[in-house]
Fold each of these.
Amino acid sequence: MTEHAVVIAGGGPTGLMLAGELMLAGVDVAIVERRASQELIGSRAGGLHSRSIEIMDQRGIADRFLSEGQVAQAAGFASAPLDLSDFPTRHPYVLGLWQNHIERILAGWVGELAVPIYRGREVTGFAQDDTGVDVQLSDGESLRAEYLVGCDGGRSLIRKAAGIEFPGWDPTTSSLIAEVEMTEEPELGIRRDAIGVHALGREEYTIIDGEIVYADSGSVRVMLTEPHVGTTEPDLSDLSEGLVAVYGTDYGIHSPAWITRFTDTTRQAATYRARRVLLAGDAAHVHSPVGGQGLNTGVQDAVNLGWKLARVVHRTAQESLLDTYHAERHPVAARVLRKTMAQVALMRVDDRTEALRDTVSELLSMDEPRKRFAAMMSGLDIHYDLGEGHPLLGRRMPDLDLVTADGPLRVFTLLHVARPVLLNLGEPGGFDGTPWADRVQLIDAKYDGMWELPAIGVVTAPTAVLIRPDGYVAWVGEDLTQRGLANALTTWFGPSSAA
Ligand SMILES: Cc1cc2nc3c(=O)[nH]c(=O)nc-3n(C[C@H](O)[C@H](O)[C@H](O)COP(=O)(O)OP(=O)(O)OC[C@H]3O[C@@H](n4cnc5c(N)ncnc54)[C@H](O)[C@@H]3O)c2cc1C
């Protein structure tokens, strides 16, 4: 039986990101993916929020996405736009890029890292014991792994087979989505009526002065809210009827590339770990696509889990480190679910909801609420509860321009190798991390600029910070003592080599 330290079921955005993280950490990882190629049927996610672009920047691959996508102030809450152009990040925008391109770019990165992918095969079941997991594949073969991670989407077989509950809310609304050809010129843009919100747009577009400008020709992406929650597999005649009901014509639709449906089903796995089996991405949480949070949350789950799982596999951490994955990421997705439900409720089309939506939009046009919601929707305000202390503790490390003895250096460049960093900003050699030097990069640097966090504002400059491989701050030095440092290093990166 072929063995791997970690087997990932599902090579969508979450599984690919996790595989890259594990490979960077030197873990023998493999993906099992049902699809024979990375080709994706359906449009799904339309882009990356600011924090996800930062995550890619932390690994040195942001340019691959930026060079293919279009940046815009496209974050919003229900219909209220949220401008984040004044945010302290190198990426204060949304990057418009369809999921098939995001997956292709991630698959290219994972390919360079030489992650084996068992394509065209499904995980059909598994059995776990005290030392590992036997993973059954649809071709009759089995794989043996120390850990199995279900990144296999909302209908996750791994979640079901692990017996993990998926509590939440049934759908209240559904929409048909499709990519089709039209013989007549459609009314491009968004339309609201008594049924709900509908949209027609060409697949090809550019963003000029913040406005979407569609190509003159080419295939059309259709989104039609249905009068009742649909349950059967939709086809071209359903789409034609829907278009006629809303626009009075079906614009001569033909040659669909795909037709599918999404709903606002909202559910979250009760636990992200069942012994040697973990869940990430849609396998752990599903919700309406409003606000564009799903792929972003999944990719960030992967970056939280990857380095922790690597340490456990390398036996440099106890298994209990994996419980911090649930402790940190479950609340993040729980908040996404609630805020997404709120947006779906605000998108209803009756007069009272419209009045409520206008009221919320008015509130969100004020500076403080705008900043808070923009920080939330962009993922820049994510805060892991690592205890009381400096505002940086548990928050993302900003990508500062440092000066080192070897010249200028960006913080994110230090994270390309996905290893922790102890950044000393005081006297060179002022912090003694030597007993952890085999695991932690020790960097002496200077930074004279402001320390500003999204939505929080300017914070006092620390004398040192301990940055985890996922870019979150695990310890902040506020004076010349090393109070709490040894404890933080031990908690996250194991006992000192001198111990
Ligand atoms: C209409 C729509 C619009 C959306 N818009 C946005 C948006 O703007 N922004 C955003 O962030 N998100 C958006 N999303 C959500 C986003 O598409 C998902 O959150 C994202 O795809 C989740 O990634 P994943 O890797 O966790 O799961 P998936 O993308 O579902 O990938 C799961 C993978 O596992 C494979 N698989 C499944 N079962 C097995 C098995 N048993 N064995 C092996 N392989 C298996 C599948 O083939 C698939 O490749 C949207 C979704 C929809 C439907």
Amino acid sequence: MKSKHSIRLPHAPTVVVTAITTAWLTADGELENLHHDETVQRLKSNKIPIVCHAPATARRLGIEPFHAFDVLELFAFAAPAQICIPTPRGVAKAVGLDVLEVQEDEPILLRKATQRLLASITTSNFQSDSIAIAISMTHGGWLWGEYVLSALGVDFDLSIPNIQTGLQVWESLDEWSEDAPPPPPGDLAVDAGEARSRLAAMLGKDAEERPSQADYASAATQAFQPRHDGEEPHFLIAEAGTGVGKTKGYIAPASVWAEKNETPVWISTYTRNLQHQIDQELSSLYPDPAIKRDKVVIRKGRENYLCLLNLEEAVRTVSVRQEEAIVIGLMARWAAETRDGDLNGGDFPAWLSDLVGRHRTLGLTDRRGECIYSACPHYSRCFIERSIRCARHANLVIANHALVMIQAARGQVGGRSPPVRYIFDEGHHVFDAADSAFSTHLSGLEAAEFRRWLRGAEGRHRGRSRGLKFRIEDLLESESARSALENALSAAGELPRDSWHQRCVDGMPQGPAEVFFVAVRREVYARAANTDSIYGLEVGYDVPTERMITAAASLESTLTKLERSINILVKHLLARLDDEADSLETATRLRLESIARALQHRALDTLNVWRSMLVSLVNSTPEEFVDWYSVKRIDGHDIDIGLHRHWIDPTIPFVKSVALPAHGVIVTSATLTDGSGDIEMDWQAAEERTGATHLTRPAIRATMPSPFEYKLLTRVFVVTDVRRDDQLQVAAAYRELFIACGGGALGLFTAISRLRNVHTRISGALDKAGLSLYAQHVDGLNLPTLIDIFRAAENACLLGTDAMRDGVDVPGQSLRLIVFDRVPWPRPTILHRARRHYFGSRAFDESTTRLKLKQAYGRLVRQGTDRGIFVMLDSMMPSRLGGAFPPGVEITRIGLAETVAAIREFFPDARRNTT
Ligand code: SF4
């Protein structure tokens, strides 16, 4: 039933909250400035406002989440799979308002953006599927529902037959089709001339000349030569300073090689967001989006993609809880429009998970590896399966270090034809990525998760979870296999279950695993140096107590039973593949293979290392590893208990599983050498960190310095008169430095507690100075969202932990000042102690710290026109760390007042309001 279209806005105030005040625009257009207390009172009097990001607004007001017309929800519905910065200006810009010229108050801008969003919802650009979703959401109680339906000219009919119908979006997605397997890789070399001409073609004839970029492309061809001996890859370590243009520099030879040899080159970077940045650079190689879609694939782990079966199960819950239709409707809108189903860094707006909850968004991925493959009704439309198939036929696969390493360890990269050429961009992270990929944890949380993976959801909280029985029962054809399944599930029943942690804290464990974790907890609390630490406690194995030995033996026996049963299951599945080779359908074959592989790696490999860790408690840890007990804490609350095993040198498994089977590997970054003053020592350290020292054929080294004049573009100050232990002084320093710079400032901290403390002390002053302040671990916003906001606003300030430094790639004015609260020395953990002994004590610490400083400093100048200042508030920074900064950049040690004056002088045009 249709009626006349009309764009109606809710008769509601539009509210924008800053750190200390609120701009309140009444429905009649009167703009008021309120204190937070008054805002809270008005909200209590049942006024449902229009806001942008309700959870962050509530957090700023210090109140519980409240009902609101959240414009971001409307955006997610009206413009699914499109990205916008989740601020009033960000939304306004995304809907086409000219925010630079229209210097209006934010509530007015937000109201206009709302109007424009509603006006964009018309039947001409909305298919009937989307209208059905809007109706379902309205039935779920969506506040925007009546306004959206009004814009669509649709009458809201309360008697729809089934609220779920509109949400079943999978039915209209395209199916993928199986292609013939790709041919075996060719082995034709790429020469320097080919790489240079490809680069020139990518850049276009009007591009400025960058000789170092062409030299880089030429050097990179050394990894694209045929290999002459098994397990002796061409291993190139290439340092290219910022501004060289290394991404296009390596894409040139890589794309030539892929075309000549009809085999993909895998480009791996550190974060999922960086994957998308590389993808953007590839538009110069493949300007036609259709061709690019064929030639370039972004690959991530399964846990990143929407699982349609999970979505279907979520849709079913709507029949019981109608209000769920709102969130699921937004997810359905996105699922229908997304390019590839990627929920992490793709076209899914990161802020939506903060808005409606991680569980209902990111929780819809195949996070636990519970896929049932061809038994799934959505298999032929599955985003994950589609991406795996596309990668086989692409020229360039853009992956991340974690995926490459985990899959290489499992023999799974590239499916049946493993890659032979890799490029590791952000190569300074290879060490950390390997450390994380090849470590093992036998903790309460891990063991409970493993139980859930095997037995599915149990007890009161029977959520969405498909246990092993559901996943494989129909594949088991013998009585012995079925009984092995029952035995495995029964043994898994001895692992920790819901509320395990509370029982361990109360000393009332159930089952051998919980008994063991109680013993670990007692051991940690008995021997840890500082049991009040808010971050976590850890102790080494040393001499185990009788209690620990007994508990470990009992748990080991349970794990052995489990391992034995799963082994039988794997053998049965593999035997079917062999015995029925001539009769199995492809889909069933793939399913058998995938499940056998998952059981092998997710279960048997894990159980094997867990048992070995338990045995090492009594015997001793193999010398290549370091083991320890821990109690993990967040904000002083225990959240996990367990054992940990890390490789002392994680590049050993990296080289074994990734580099040795490959024919050519490039490890590249702007920060591979650390500036100790001895260039040969720097390269040796770089080779240690990338694993090159474990190769029989020496690594090839290449270096291209940055073309930027850092001496002119930057300043580095060490402030000498702020006591780093005095939080008042540190906060005052941040405040004055940020205000002097007029924003565009990033504050980095080596401890979350100090970050929060500084945030509390400076937020009011910055607000008065007209500077927006955002903070990791404080605002109700996730990290990618915070960085997007910071990047988009020229004069914002952002506080984050030291680890944030790498994710902040912000060219231009938005980042012009970096302030570190302390020297980012490595944390003195048991793992660090072992590595110090192995890699060389003080030199290792200093080299690691210089690299961190170098990476942070490197954020300041991303393009030739950027200028920036780096400030260290820790006067104890030794001059030996000065090599972190480029030659010629002077490190000036002065007091705070002089530093503030120097900033004002360096940025004379900065917009500064006085406090
Ligand atoms: S095939 Fe697996 S991952 Fe894909 S939708 Fe089905 S269950 Fe989910």
